[in-house]
Amino acid sequence: MIFNKEAPENWNNNIKDSCCTKEFAEANMYSGEVYFACNNENKALVIIKKKYIKVLARAQIFTDSLNKEFLIAILVKLKDMKIPYARIGNTMFGVDRKINLNNSKIINRHTFILDLNKTEEEIWKNFNKKLRNVIRKSEKEGVKIFELKDEDELKEYYNLSLKTEKNIQKNKGRKTFSIQSYDFFKELFNNKLGRFLIAKYNNKIIAGALFLIWNNKSVYFQSCSDREYSIKQAPSLIQWESIKRFKQEGVKEYDLGGVTINLDKNDSRFFVYEFKRKFNGELKEFYNIEIELNKFKKVQDFLVKNIYGR
């Protein structure tokens, strides 16, 4: 198996998901060590994030491969590197079926998928009535949607993302939510894997969303919004304008990003589920796999629970 920091030639050939692309790897090089793993037709992107000391290091594995031997070979390599913990996938990406690995736990994930092969009218009519009303309201309020055009706007977008992060941390607790570095966003903007759509009111960015576009698929990856302008309903309008724009460009599948189902209404994640549910996409299940690679995984679990409250 090839496992190194340089992307093999023609790496992007036959890559199905944006999270496995060379462009996504380049963006993540600012937050950790990135490795390209491949064996014949199997490919995976491995991102190792080290927090101060190796005992806190964690590996994220992004792949669409269901080859158990290939995945085990990656885990053996990580174990040799003394990495305590690995996860295949995250809240946005994962594998299509359950794979049983030693010392592992399977996490069920869900997302809503819109079929952009349908006509614009069919997609609109399938929206929840309340959603259609708030989109109309946003348009009447004078909110305008644009694609982010330069680094000055990117900095404004990022500052709003930091403000959003601060608000979420305040409501949910310290460090339970954090965004990537500015360099991550800048790299995605420059290499064109990321598409940023922003909502403006009185020439000010009041909301925005980052989409990853690859292989005729779009994934709603990250967003920000100014709570002072929540009455303008800009996030809903951003989604509708994105759907229309990407459909015209030939995107076939619109992924609204990960959701957690069967939540109590008092759970802070329930709002995210309700927002995405109203687009009436097809609910799709996928899977993450958490793997304990050595005994220090339990140390990480203890620290996360007692320091971060989760």
Walkthrough of the structure:
- Strand 9 and strand 10 (217-225) form a beta hairpin.
- The model has no long low-confidence stretch (mean pLDDT 92).
- The chain has a twelve-stranded mixed β-sheet, with helices on both faces.
- It has two domains: 2-107 and 287-307; 111-285, Gcn5-related N-acetyltransferase (GNAT) (Aminopeptidase, 3-Layer(aba) Sandwich), CATH 3.40.630.
- The longest helix is centred in the middle third of the chain and has 22 residues, at 151-172.
- It contains nine helices and twelve strands.
- By secondary structure, it is of the alpha+beta class.
- Helix 1 packs antiparallel against helix 6.
Q: Which features does this protein show?
A:
310 residues, alpha+beta, Aminopeptidase, 2 domains, twelve-stranded mixed beta sheet, 12 strands, globular
